[in-house]
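Case study 2.
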Amino acid sequence: MDNLNQQQISRLNSVLVQREQALREEIRREIDAQDDYVQLASEVPDPGDQSFANLSVDLGNAAVTRDMHELRAIELARKRMTSGTYGECASCGYPIPFERLQAMPTAERCAPCQENFERTHNEGHRGATM
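Prediction:
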């Protein structure tokens, strides 16, 4: 964390805290909406309505999964802040520029290492990049 001063770390931590709160609220809303659609899917005799309700539940599950991945990334970033390794590239060890961390506060790698990681670790799904 030698490349980041305390003010920068504090600012990035605030961004992470705010994003975490927003994600938790979004997850609560998605789960509440899913409950409504599950109830609808079990009550409607019309196949079209049931299909729509099932699709809505599936989309809600995908949104919750995406948000949970982001929450885990936030948790890991905050642990790196505590341990003193935040802002240090997990691949090459060089400092991650503050500008990159402003754009992606959960970044574990500098941009060149992240590009290389994405090229070599394509796991068949695409999430947030860079």
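The two ends are 20 Å apart (CA to CA).
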